[in-house]
Amino acid sequence: MENNAADYENSFYQEKGRYNGVLSWLMSTDHKRIGIQYLAAILTFFSIGVMLGLLVRLSLIAPGKILSQNTYNQVFSVHGILMIFLFIIPGVPVAFGNFFLPIMIGARDVAFPRLNRLTWWLYLAGAALVALSLFTSGGPPDTGWTFYAPYSIRAQANITLAVTGVFVLGFSSILTGLNFVTTIHRLRAPGMTWFKLPLFVWTLYATGWVQMLATPVLAITLVFIILGRVFGVGFFDPSRGGDPILYEHLFWTYSHPAVYIMVLPAMGIISEVIPVFARKKIFGYKAVAYSALGIASVGYFVWGHHMFTSGMSDTARIIFSFITFLVAVPSGIKIFNWVATLYKGSIMPNAPLYFALSFIFLFSIGGLTGLIIGSLAPNLHLHGTYFIVAHFHYVMFGGAGFAILTALHYWFPKMFGKMYPEKPAKVGWFILFIGFNLLYFSMFILGYRGMPRRYFDYPPEYFNLHLISTIGSWILAIGLLVILVNLLRALFRGTQAPSDPWGGKTLEWKIASPPPAENFHEIPEIK
Amino acid sequence: MSYERGAIEKSGEQRDQTGAKYGMWFFLFTEILFFGGMFILYSVFRAKYTQDFHLAAGEENLLLGSLNTAVLLTSSLSIALSISALKKENYRLSVQLQTATVLMGLIFLVIKYFEWTAKISKGIYPDSPVLLKMSAGQILFFGLYYVMTGLHGLHVLIGIVVISFMIYFTKTGNVTSGNFSKLENTGLYWHFVDIVWIYLFPLFYLIT
């Protein structure tokens, strides 16, 4: 079944189903169409989020001249809400997971295709609610993306709508996870045993469980916020006997595992890309697979490290700190195995590998600085400073964000049937990489010197580093622009992509680019 | 197990009954965690304000609470029997048992309505002047009472709607002895709602 797949059927773009035009997309239960729609949506929200981020950076080199204090609070809050809940949490699973999970396990679709379509509608509804909260009475949320109580219960801004939107998005995320886990259990092709699963599938499996086990806790916490605002139920309101620290506990019980919802599938992408471009099998397949489960399970018990300065017993803090260090072990296993895969490989220096390698570099910096703030003594100094901001941008953007760019370049030929020119992709990558490090590494130093996060203004001695950081943000934006324009041009002017441009061995490379509507003429058998 | 395929028909129709059950169980896990958030709040606040909780729980109507427990437990039995009836192709009986379940669900909500209105008429509801004059623990107890029984009641209501659809499906031949996973999963959901109540009942009515 090597290369005869090219022309036996129409691609899924031609199979419209019962509807025409936009409805042929919105009403489709085809996992590939749903994946493409999600991809368009998350990249749109990413672009808006980037612009808001640029605005925050711009305001910081001239406090008061561009944004007022209140607008500044709203802009960074909306930047966070968009980037977290609309871009990076759905991120890899909804776009690339939807498109490739069924193909990679040799199935025709996910286990519950109509439920899959429902998640997409819920995502749209959640996004619409969040958007509505920006423009209706009260104004955009100014609480930061964390909605900390009791401020979120008392604030004048339009928190209720935004929180309802996030609740709906969470429901969408739960159902996606449920669908993927069921799919992996039930729809693997004959011979596709657990330890033949591509590693991307393994990480989607682990992610699916985290989505199911963590997101409901966020959902109920957000319900409490809404009930607090609408009915005056004061579970987090100290004036009514409630406890704001409980909010933090419940919120981070979800929001720390959510970090792994973002980064686990990103690691899966890297585990696919590195072996293909090193022309070798992945080093230590089982260790990489198990480490995904390890991260998912241990990551559930470390939320307390977000609250070291919130008031907890020393025993609790020491335990949370210790478990935090444990999470670093499976992450380290992955990093070492990727590097070991490259060792003595016959490396093809194509654009996807550039992005994948920079993922390893940036994620390692993000991970190691995570250990610095995961230990108690430095945390007391660094908590709530720019060091934290730098750390999570290295993990989220340098990790998950770069992985999305990796996947975009790796799977672009398969998803759209077009090749993009390599050179602009690499130039874009280079500009992005330089801009990224200027932007966020300056923040490590700023934070170390005591600059608190979310502050509108600062003493003059921080100015130079803020300036470097802001200049970095412009360079980063240019890099992103080059990358996206290059891909958009290729969408219309690219040359026809072969079914397997990189020499990949997973099942998606055995079928035509773009894939036919039902993926496989006959369900493949894996030997 | 992984070799069973053909689950996905061309229309995207789901026929893999085991797969459907997996999906339902996963969904119930998420429900447990959803309610888990509330039970955690309950335990934290109970530990903090034991005396206030003791006082406030005296307000609860044990008779109506017990009655509701009996009604809901019986409805769990009737939905279980309706599945057995369906599998034995006794569709008429199955429909009757499902209808009985719906009715008992409605009775549960009516009783709950009387309990709530009795409290509200005394001025006890979130943010009420009467409640805000009480001690912190009592405010929290009644807050938890309204939120937990309210969200549970919402689940009962959703269950009633879903079972009504199942009655329709059984009548139209969409749910049959060979294709029963829809009804079976509805039954699982209903049992879950029942089990949540089995925990709510002692926490609000019995331990005072």
TrEMBL record, chain A:
One of its GO terms (biological process) is aerobic respiration. Keywords: Electron transport, Heme, Iron, Membrane, Metal-binding, Oxidoreductase, Respiratory chain, Transmembrane, Transmembrane helix, Transport. One of its GO terms (molecular function) is oxidoreductase activity. It is found in: Membrane. PROSITE patterns: COX1 (PS50855), COX1_CUB (PS00077). It is a multi-pass membrane protein. Pfam families: COX1. One of its GO terms (cellular component) is membrane. Residues 19-527 form the Cytochrome oxidase subunit I profile domain. The chain crosses the membrane at residues 36-56, 76-100, 120-139, 159-181, 202-231, 251-270, 282-303, 318-340, 352-374, 386-408, 429-451, 471-492. Its EC number is 1.9.3.1. InterPro entries: Cyt_c_oxase-like_su1_dom, Cyt_c_oxase-like_su1_sf, Cyt_C_Oxase_1, Cyt_c_Oxase_su1_BS. Belongs to the heme-copper respiratory oxidase family. This is Cytochrome c oxidase subunit I. The gene is coxA.
TrEMBL record, chain B:
One of its GO terms (cellular component) is plasma membrane. GO terms for molecular function: cytochrome-c oxidase activity; oxidoreductase activity. Its main location: membrane. The chain crosses the membrane at residues 22-42, 62-83, 95-114, 139-168, 188-207. Residues 1-208 form the Heme-copper oxidase subunit III family profile domain. InterPro entries: Cyt_c/ubiquinol_Oxase_su3, Cyt_c_oxidase-like_su3, Cyt_c_oxidase_su3-like_sf, Cyt_c_oxidase_su3_a-hlx. It is a multi-pass membrane protein. GO terms for biological process: aerobic electron transport chain. Gene3D superfamilies: Cytochrome c oxidase, subunit III, four-helix bundle. Its EC number is 1.9.3.1. Pfam families: COX3 (PF00510). Belongs to the cytochrome c oxidase subunit 3 family. This is Cytochrome c oxidase subunit III (CoxC). It comes from Candidatus Sulfobium mesophilum.
